[in-house]
What we know:
The protein has 394 residues and is an alpha+beta fold. It contains 8 helices and 22 strands. The strands form 5 sheets. It has a 6-stranded mixed sheet, sandwiched between helices.
Amino acid sequence: MSKExxxxxxxxxxxxxxxxxxxxxxxINDKEFLTLLGPSGCGKTTTLRxxxxxxxxxxxxxxxxxxxxxxxxxxxxxxxxxFQKYALFPHLNVFENIAFGLRMQRRPDPSDPTGKRxxxxxxxxxxxxxxxxxxVISLKGFESRRPDxxxxxxxxxxxxxxxxxxxxxxxxxxxxxxxLDLKLRKDMQIELKRIQQQVGITFIYVTHDQEExxxxxxxxxxxxxxxxxxxxxxxxxxxxxKNAFVADFIGESNIIDGIMVRDNLVQMYGKQFPCxxxxxxENEPVDVVIRPEDIDIVPVEQGQLTGTVTNVTFKGxxxxxxxxxxxxxxxxxxTDHSPEGERIGIKIDPDGIHVMKKSQYSGMFGDYSSxxxxxxxxxxxxxxxxxxxxxxxx
Length: 394
């Protein structure tokens, strides 16, 4: 069983009387890779700064190993931080950049019985620990290089090694991949997860990139407007979003108004669809999430719903198809090509339908009429009326 390492309890933060965090309650386990995910301004970086000791909450507590640390300065916490700007010393080589923090440290002199005298870390220990870190970040042999002779990914790994060489219990990472190009960013996602597993400490990672969060995390905390919207594994967050904001922010989603007829049966567009959800009141208004990859295109006569293709974009591995269903645009991702203007049917398996309670975010997401500038939508008035669909709802 995982041991709890950090707990945020009723955490609130305000700047100039404007709330930034609202009653954040969260625990983080030892050796966990946890990601704070959300749009700009949601409070994720503020949360990270409070954990690191760079900001003091307006109210609430930060507990580390059960001890309240609100007033403990950053340098006395067993926590190090890697920022988006790596801030490597340009005049020092890789070895000296990593060793810098160790050279600044002093510890009790073992020969002093009073414990008052301190000494520097011995040079042979510094070298051993730096070389160990170079091995971890796969940069052995780069000791003599200057930062300007390294790629962006290599510089980032040096910054991580400089933080890890001090042997913290927690490493905070604030959007550290933001400055890298797409391919390198993807490579570093795998590399970061490998490093975290190898050193066996807690990583707390901040990003607005849902792919990064899904790729690396043990636990994802989705935030918006200073509040936590959902906490869960990547699989839970993607497959079982709690509200329309989470469903829209994590991946692509079609979010439709529905009525929960009864357990395992939801109604959309006047048609009933079997699903796997329950626990709602009979005929309760709900939000229905259908992921684009969970929709099968079938001949019109076999469809649970029929609609008109209004746009098609080739994405290499798949086609992104926009389909109009009674004036509401859906996104379908498929390897099958359907030309613009074609009438198609769709079928959705029960496990491809996820039903959520209505929330403050209901009605804000899901219509792909303005999916992207690359989609030049047909005008609804030019589309023939959608006829009553026949389908096997039961």
